[in-house]
Amino acid sequence: MVLVGIPPIVANATNNVAMWVGTLGSAHGYREEILAHRRLVAYALPAALVGSVIGAVLLLRTPPHLFERLIPWLLLAATAAFVAGPRLVRLRGGAAQPSPLTAWQIALQFAIAIYGGYFGAGIGLMTLAVLAFSGLRTMNEMNGVKNILTTAITGIAVIPFALAGVVRWPVAAAMAAAAMLGGYAGARFFRLLPSRLVRWSVIAIGLAMTTYFFVRPS
């Protein structure tokens, strides 16, 4: 959108609307996992909603240059945490059953939500990094919880953007249709794959995104 001349803040807000529809489709694709871990979701959801509104308001009031500089470092940290998470859980004795997020995990999710409402690149990977310490045993479980949280983050941010009149609705509608179909199809497809393969796919995507944001022209 920026390449075709749409101002950055308008492009970011429009993309947020379209991607919200995509995450909604993806969350529906993981509906079984979300229902199974709805108690864990309930602990993290308020932080995600409040943080996203704060981030969206910040975007409307300030330029996004600071967050653009933080993106590669945030992605690198999230990828490293995602890789190390299961091993660190095992070293401390592990969690026999998935448990509600601890205070530090909720605080991190709150920070991720602020960033998500403000800019948003890589929030799925960052959320997976937090969930790697939650006791969820499979990538399907983690992806399901992640998708409902990212749906909440992108969805609630739509409200301030719409009220401020910075959304290009025709562009958002066209993108949303493709995002909804792709989100749902991708979720149902990845549920069929071995958890180890999905995990390594996430790590590869995280490394690729980190590299891109480090080397792209500013």
Describe this structure as you would to a colleague.
There is one protein chain. This protein has one domain. The protein contains nine helices and no strands. It has helices at 8-29, 31-36, 38-61, 65-91, 103-118, 123-131, 139-164, 169-190, 195-215. α3 (38-61) runs parallel beside α7 (139-164). The chain is globular and about 45 Å long. The model has no long low-confidence stretch (mean pLDDT 84).
From the alpha-carbon coordinates, what is the Rg to the nearest angstrom? 17 Å
Q: Termini separation (Å)? A: 17 Å
Query: Can you tell me the overall shape?
Result: globular
- How many discrete structural domains? 1
Write the layout of secondary structure elements.
Blueprint lengths: L7 H22 L1 H6 L1 H24 L3 H27 L11 H16 L4 H9 L7 H26 L4 H22 L4 H21 L3
Helix pairs in contact: 1-7, 1-8, 3-5, 3-7, 4-6, 4-9, 5-6, 5-7, 6-7
Distinctive features:
single chain; 218 residues; mainly alpha; 9 helices
